[in-house]
Design a protein that fits this description.
The chain is of the alpha+beta class. Helix content is 21%, strand content 26%. It has helices at 43-57, 126-131, 133-139, 167-174, 197-207, 230-233; strands spanning 3-4, 14-19, 66-67, 74-76, 85-86, 89-92, 99-103, 107-113, 119-124, 150-154, 164-166, 184-186, 192-195, 212-215, 239-245. Belongs to the purine nucleoside phosphorylase YfiH/LACC1 family.
């Protein structure tokens, strides 16, 4: 299968990847490996996609799927679950629990400690990012010291040349940190900006001590062959980013 392996230096027992829309059996606007049950696709096809993905990627268990609402909630999962959890992030310190974040432009962020004992997956839209979801995910980690630090990987998301926002988004970030304005480029039209989600996420992570941040530099909006993009297409599917401990 076609998957994106994070280009970071995570411990050997930490397994992670991001899916693409290649492969899969969804059709039409959802063409490919759509993993979103909530987007209007035939749910039997989505279920087939999910089963195929689990088999091909050799996941130890079915992923923990989240009902994502752009919240700042991060749930701790220590044993396999079959129900969908209401949260925008999942954390575990248990082996074999597959944390996931579904996206179609929002930023997927995965985290691990350098000893490979804890992992998390976060769905970071601008609201969640501004509200502190990354800080909430980092706060789940324990037993950190100079020999055990958190590292992060930023997966495929809408890029800095495509994510146009208004003053409300700029103000939501600058209110927290004036330096956030560095992640916004003014457009010719007054009150319109191009926002760099990866830069904003990196700023927030750095402020809570996460200095090892690797960006995939993959833009969902620009690559219609590989990725679903809500901004580009409106009606579309979802890819996902996964992480677990072996």
């Amino acid at each position: 299968m076609s998957m994106i392996i994070p280009n970071w230096n995570a411990p050997q027992n930490v397994k992670a990847f991001a899916s693409t829309r290649f492969d899969g059996c969804s059709t039409g606007a959802y063409q490919g490996l759509n993993l979103g049950m909530h987007v209007g696709d035939d749910t039997s096809l989505v279920e087939s996609n999910r089963i195929w993905l689990k088999q091909q990627s050799k996941m130890p268990t079915a992923p923990v799927w989240l009902n994502q609402t752009h919240s700042t909630d991060v749930v701790t999962v220590l044993e396999p679950v079959t129900n969908v959890l209401d949260a925008d992030g999942a954390f575990t310190s248990a082996k074999g629990i597959v944390c996931s974040a579904m996206t179609a432009d929002c930023l997927p962020v995965i985290l691990t400690d350098t000893k490979g004992t804890q992992v998390a997956a976060v769905h970071a839209g601008w609201r969640g990012l501004a509200g502190g979801i990354l800080e909430n995910a980092v706060a789940k980690f324990s037993n950190l010291d100079s020999d055990n630090q958190i590292m992060a990987w930023l997966g495929p998301a809408i890029g800095k040349d495509a994510f146009e926002v208004g003053n409300d988004v700029l103000e939501a970030f600058v209110r927290f940190d004036p330096q956030a304005k560095l992640a916004f480029q003014a457009k010719a039209q007054p009150g319109k900006w191009l926002a760099n989600m990866s830069q904003l996420a990196t700023q927030r992570l750095m402020k809570v001590g996460v200095t090892s941040v690797t960006d995939s530099n993959l833009c969902t909006y620009a690559d219609s062959d590989a990725f679903y993009s809500y901004r580009r297409d409106g009606i579309t599917g979802r890819q996902a980013t996964f992480i677990w401990l072996e």
